[in-house]
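Note to self: keep these together.
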Amino acid sequence: MNALEAVRARQSWSKVTDEAPAREELLHLVAAAGRVADHSSLQPWRLIEMRGADREVLGAAIAKAEGDKSPSTKPLRAPLLIAVVASYRKSDKVPRWEQEAVASGVAHVLSLLLDEAGWGVIWRTGHYTRSKAVAKAHGIGKNEELLGWLYVGGKPAGKKPGRRKPVDARRLVTRMPKKK
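Structure:
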C-alpha cells in the first residue's frame, strides 16, 4: 500500500479488540511519525504510552475533573492509549502554534501508520484534557499541553469502521483573490 492508499483507507475505529501493538512495534512507528515537518527540529512533542492500570489512573483523573464519584471507564475502551503532549520549546523563530501543529502532525501520522499496520485507532479529546487532575496524572509540565489520546487496539473481525464523508476538495482549495 502506498501513502495515498493508506491515507484514503484510514478510518476511525471507536470499538477495538483487546489486542495492541507491542512496545517495540510502537517505538518503530513513532520513530517514523517523528519525521513530520518540524521547523528548527525542536521536537516539541512527547507521547505517553498507557496500558493496563495506567488507564484506570486516567479514569480516576477524568472523574475528578468531571466531579464524578466513580472512575470514568472511557480509558478502558482500548488496550493502548497514547497521550499526545505538545512540549513547547523556547524559540525566537518557531511560535507556539507551530509547535502545537508539529505535535498534532506526529499524532496524525502515527495514527495513519498504526492503521496501515492493521490496528484500529481513534483520536479522542475532551474538555478535561486541560484539567489539572488529568494533567497531573500525566505529569504534564508547565510548558506542555495534553492534546488528546490515540486509542489503539485490534480491528474487530467482521466490523466496519465509522463512516466518513468524502472530502470536496474543489470547495476547500481556493486561489488568491484577484487584485482590485
